[in-house]
Design goal:
The complex is a heterotrimer. Chain A contains 16 helices and 2 strands. By secondary structure, chain A is mainly alpha-helical. Chain A has one domain. In chain A, strands 1-2 form a two-stranded antiparallel ribbon. The longest helix of chain B is centred in the first third of the chain and has 32 residues. Chain B is mainly alpha-helical. Chain B has 13 helices and 2 strands, in the order H-H-H-H-H-H-E-E-H-H-H-H-H-H-H. A two-stranded antiparallel sheet of chain B has the order 1-2. Chain B has a single domain, classed as ABC transporter involved in vitamin B12 uptake, BtuC, CATH 1.10.3470. By secondary structure, chain C is an alpha/beta fold. Chain C folds into 2 domains: 184 residues, Rossmann fold (3-Layer(aba) Sandwich), CATH 3.40.50; 154 residues, Rossmann fold. Classes of the chains: A mainly alpha, B mainly alpha, C alpha/beta. Chains A and C meet through helix 1, helix 3, helix 13, helix 14 and helix 16 of A and helix 1, helix 2, strand 2, helix 3 and helix 4 of C.
């Protein structure tokens, strides 16, 4: 469980290789939207949004060891803050994104403080985070302040503007912005893990009692991790609204969002730096791949073409197989094999 | 990392009874106070009476649905997302038998319970046992996959049209000026019976002892010769069989669609945690608390969603009792 | 040491490319400009997930329309070019809807039909607008969908607010005719945008007509499993009529609760309700649903062509047709007529023709499909239906009512 001499999943001791890798990956990905047709570009942007959500979840639940089943709360706060400021006040989505991150971090601190103050753990903690997300959904649905169940539409502008985070469809702008956000999130995660605070967080996760006996305040580092995780996830929400141009309480705070945040990390590798990214790359296009496969099935399976629900079944089966075959996730298993 | 995510094992000894009784009394007093306030402040007593009766009956249904879930959660540490899908499957079995053979809906219990038991056994033995001991989220994902598989198989083979399996002679029974449907009253009675039966199995049989031993300490149980993998399969099968019974009992007053089960999943998780994981009578009690809170909340806060007070009460209860209202003593 | 990264890098990039590429067999072909071969029309509906029943009906309706048009010789002004329906399953999720819409447009769809769910439509509308491809909505309940000044969005179903208002007028008219003018209405609605706008439209008009609307009770359609308390509240309020807006499952719950509580009303009156006018409602609700009203858009069974469509549907899919399928059918026909008139495969020209043209409709309405400046079909009108002897019939207004069908009022439900 504890790995000698360093941080799990970081792939090296105090090196700058991860930063190099981020730069390298970005360099490889930057031309991608120039060659992808628009529909596949939409899938690629979806992948990046998944990755961002997964990175946020992984920080708190993978590295911090606090299993969250309510990341929809932070995603939704990010989405709604950005949408509200833009639609009601005409504020740039970038400022909305920052404001959303601050609010989400504050909300994370609140939930965290209450939960740790009252010593919630494990599944009880998970369900408490879920309850908070559901409360936000229900409050948003019945609150005039945020337009009730109606939600918000992002108004279309003429032309494109980086400041207003709007580009013509098919322009690589969305992809690049999302890529930059994901790269930043990976970098932030990496820097956090390398810092004193990050090391203490891992120490608290691995053995809280031991860490506290050495004078590390568990509460403090848990709260810090939660706030950072909430902020990253809220950025995913803010970007989601700008890209899909619409948000309502279910899309922002629904239980599906919380599940969506868990999936990439589990498929890629919980508690590893690159796990959520790898997981998102696998999961994001998966439903499109299964849908395409069954839309134009090979000759032998032609009787299955066009039956609704079959592609989702295939998706589900692949999900199960992946978890069973690679219990530590795609990246996690690879990393382990190298180490072992 | 998994150590953190592992839920507390259920209370293996049924000890601390007086404390549990005290907590139950406290909850009861709080509920009675809420009802009294409702009678005093609301102009129409019949509405409050109806809310209480409906709250008790829907609470029974929530408890019924949550029973299998709490068993699986408590013994296997599996957050079973497929529970709703199992429920839907049982409803479709009920509908199919009623539509094809014209039998009484409750007669479908003879098929749905064994069928779901077998399915649960196969799934645990074939799939989930391979992931036991892994992190919480892995099993969660597998059950999520199972639920997608079942729901979409139902969609694929049986279509998306809503179905119904009404109870012959279902009618409204008058209770203190309010009403209660026969089908719901029977489901409530069945919930009580099922809770009793499960409790007896767990406390009075050899198998039950083995299940409790595995829940408390799988390695220790293995040492004394318990086949842990078999007990896992058996427990999961018992849990899904409960879903089978619940599905058939709920079918007469539900609209049967492939996604119907999802309705109950969220509430059922809340009930499980409130009642204490692995605690079968706790699930029933938790169901009643949630049912009454939902209905009375609707009376007190007409503009809000009735589920809002449910989550507020849930979170407050967790803060007061981090292991659930009727959970172990930590 | 660096091997892992290289593996991970290679794996992720390969997967990304495989994934993206995999979903586009021949994705680079097509493009909206293809000048030969069949003309593609995109159809986007929730074929799986919790709205699959309606989604599949809509999809089937669109399919039948394409088959009918092809059987009649295709688009004659384009040399008898055949139509081809390319479909996508939104699963009810906006992010899937977005990439599927993009895919259909990229595959060369000249127009898109869809999507039943407001959250998905809101997104697809912006995709269509930015790609300059007409988006003809069969069903989309949220009225805000057309308030963004989009030029490529069109909607066939009447606005939910307007259905609410028309419902109030019909109710006042009918109850007066029958000598029992309604004074007080209790309203029960699901809490999302759809239920709230129907209620708002109804209440504004009802209050103008001197009818009190009280109490107004909302519920969460996602988790509700019993509506008995709410119906008891209605009974205690002394209202004459209960107006209801909700989805199918909760509509059946409401009907069952009315059957149990017996609230002593003159009528239960659906306003754009998603249950009371569906063919399977009388069976699922049983005796409790007899006499229920619903005011909604409706397929015109007095139109022999619509009647034929309903028969074909039943024969082909073994299921009763819902009004939604007819809307999807009309949406495809609208596009086909647009293609015929414009004589071009250019989506921009198609858009101009659709927005100005008048096209045949199978819905009960004041006339052919005709869009106003926002893209709303002005000629679709809601009509009053009632459950009679286990079947839903159009009963009012007289000129649209099915032969021999008369409204029963008061209908004293649950007795």
């Amino acid at each position: 469980m504890t790995r000698p001499g360093g941080l799990p999943g970081l792939g090296g001791r105090g090196t700058r290789r991860n930063l190099l890798l981020i730069a390298l990956l970005c360099a490889v990905m930057i031309p991608l939207p120039l060659v992808l047709p628009p529909a596949q570009q939409a899938v690629a942007v979806r992948v990046l949004i998944f990755a961002l959500m997964g990175l946020g979840w992984n920080l708190m639940s993978g590295f911090g060891g606090m299993f969250s089943f309510g990341h929809a709360a932070y995603f939704g706060i990010g989405a709604y803050t950005g949408a509200w400021l833009l639609v009601e006040r005409g504020v740039s989505p970038w400022i909305g994104m920052l404001a959303g991150a601050a609010l989400a971090a504050a909300f994370g601190l609140l939930i965290g403080f209450l939960s740790f103050r009252y010593k919630l753990r494990g599944a009880y903690f998970a369900l408490a985070t879920f309850a908070f997300a559901e409360m936000l959904r229900l409050i948003a649905t019945n609150s005039d302040l945020v337009n009730r169940a109606q939600g918000y539409n992002v108004p279309l502008i003429q032309g494109s503007s980086l400041w207003m985070l709007q580009f013509p469809l098919g322009s690589p702008g969305y992809f690049w912005v999302a890529l930059a956000l994901v790269a930043a999130a990976v970098a932030v995660t990496w820097l956090f893990l390398r810092s004193r605070a990050g090391r203490f967080t891992i120490a608290v996760r691995d053995d809280e009692t031991a860490a506290e006996s050495l004078g590390v305040s568990a509460m403090r580092y848990k709260l810090l991790t939660m706030a950072l995780s909430a902020a990253i996830t809220s950025v995913a929400g803010a970007f989601y609204v700008q890209y899909y141009m619409f948000v309502d309480p279910d899309l922002a705070f629904g239980a599906n969002v919380s599940i969506q945040a868990i999936l990439p990390a589990v498929i890629g590798g919980v508690g590893t730096l690159w796990g959520p990214v790898v997981g998102a790359v696998v999961l994001g296009p998966l439903s499109d791949v299964t849908a395409t496969l069954l839309r134009n099935p090979p000759e032998a399976l032609s009787m299955l073409a066009g039956r609704a629900g079959l592609d989702v079944m295939l998706y589900a089966a692949l999900l199960i197989v992946m978890v069973l075959a690679l219990p530590k996730g795609l990246y996690g298993t690879l990393a382990e094999r190298r180490r072992g | 990392m998994t150590a953190e995510a592992r839920p507390v094992v259920p209370e293996p000894r049924w000890g601390g009874r007086s404390l549990t009784a005290a907590r139950a009394a406290a909850v009861l007093i709080a509920l009675i106070a809420a009802v009294t306030v409702a009678y005093a402040t609301q102009g129409q007593p019949v509405v409050v009476t109806q809310a209480v009766i409906t709250g008790i009956l829907t609470g029974g249904v929530y408890g019924l649905v949550a029973m299998g879930l709490t068993l699986i959660f408590g013994v296997l540490d599996i957050v079973n997302f497929a529970h709703g899908a199992f429920l839907a499957l049982a409803m479709f079995v009920t509908f199919g038998l009623v539509a094809a053979l014209g039998v009484h809906p409750y007669a479908a219990l003879a098929v749905s319970v064994p069928l779901l038991f077998a399915l649960g056994w196969v799934l645990q033995y074939g799939l989930l046992n391979r992931a036991m001991g892994g992190p919480l989220q892995n099993q969660l994902l597998i059950t999520l996959g199972i639920s997608l598989l079942i729901e979409n198989a139902l969609l694929l083979f049986l279509g998306a049209n809503p179905r119904s399996a009404p109870l012959p002679g279902d009618r409204a029974l008058p209770v203190l000026g309010a009403v209660a449907d026969t089908s719901r009253v029977l489901a409530f009675a069945a919930a009580l019976a099922l809770a009793g039966a499960l409790w007896l199995i767990l406390t009075r049989t050899r198998v039950g002892t083995a299940i409790r031993a595995v829940a408390a300490d799988p390695r220790g149980a293995e040492h004394v010769g318990v086949d842990v993998r078999r007990i896992y399969a058996l427990t999961f099968a018992l849990g899904t069989a409960c879903a089978g019974a619940a599905g058939t009992l709920v079918a007469p007053f539900a609209t049967i669609e492939p996604t119907t089960g999802q309705l109950f999943t969220i509430v059922a998780f809340v009930v499980v945690v409130l009642g204490g994981m692995g605690n079968v009578p706790g699930a029933l009690a938790g169901g009643l608390v949630i049912g009454l809170t939902e209905q009375l909340g609707g009376v007190f806060l007409p503009g809000q969603s009735p589920m809002l007070p449910v989550f507020v009460v849930f979170v407050l209860a967790l803060f007061l009792r981090p292991q659930g209202l009727f959970g172990g003593n930590g | 040491m660096t091997k892992t990264w290289i593996i991970a890098l290679a794996a992720s990039v390969t997967l990304a490319l495989a994934g993206c590429g995999g979903s586009a067999p021949g994705g680079t072909s097509g493009g909206a400009g293809a000048q030969t071969g069949p003309i593609k029309i995109g159809s986007l509906h929730p074929l799986s997930g919790s709205s699959a029943a309606d989604g599949q009906q809509l999809e089937n309706g669109a399919k039948l329309a394409v088959e009918a048009i092809n059987a009649a010789g295709g688009v004659k002004s384009l040399g008898g070019a055949k139509l081809e329906l390319t479909s996508g399953d939104t699963q009810g999720k906006p992010n899937i809807g977005q990439s599927e819409a993009q895919r259909l447009i990229q595959d060369g769809a000249v127009a898109i039909v869809g999507t039943y769910m407001s959250a998905v439509s809101a997104n697809v509308a912006s995709v269509a607008e930015r790609n300059q491809v007409p988006f003809v909505m069969d069903i989309t309940g949220d009225d805000a969908i057309l308030s963004h000044g989009y030029k490529y969005s069109f909607r066939l179903q009447p606005p939910t607010m307007r259905i609410g208002a028309e419902s109030a007028r019909h109710l006042a008219e009918l109850s007066e005719q029958q000598g029992k003018p309604v004074k007080k209405v209790a309203y029960l609605h699901e809490q999302s945008a759809y239920g709230t706008s129907a209620m708002t439209g109804f209440r504004e008009e009802a209050e103008r007509l001197g009818i009190t609307v009280d109490p107004v009770i909302s519920y969460d359609p996602v988790g509700v499993s019993d509506l008995t308390t709410q119906i008891t509240q209605v009974k205690a309020s002394g209202a004459d009529v209960l107006a209801v807006t909700g989805y199918y499952r909760d509509g059946v719950l409401a009907a069952k609760a009315v059957g149990s509580v017996k609230p002593g009303l003159d009528a239960v009156y659906g306003v754009a309700d998603g249950a009371f006018d569906l063919p399977q409602f009388p069976k699922d609700a049983g005796a409790a649903g007899e006499g229920f009203f619903d005011v909604n858009y409706r397929l015109d069974l007095n139109n022999p062509e619509t009647k034929r469509l309903a028969d074909t549907y039943k024969q082909r899919f073994g299921d009763e047709i819902r009004t939604g399928a007819v809307l999807a059918y009309d949406a495809v026909r609208t596009i086909a007529t647009g293609l015929e008139k414009s004589g071009s495969r250019d989506p921009k020209k198609l858009r101009d023709v659709i927005s100005s043209g008048s096209l045949p409709s199978m819905l009960v309405g004041k006339g052919p499909v005709k869009f106003d400046a926002t893209g709303q079909n002005v000629n679709a009108i809601p009509v009053m239906m009632q459950v009679h002897d286990g079947a839903v019939q159009v009963v009012h207004p007289k000129e649209h009512a099915e032969p021999e069908a008369r409204p029963d009022y008061p209908a004293a439900p649950g007795s």
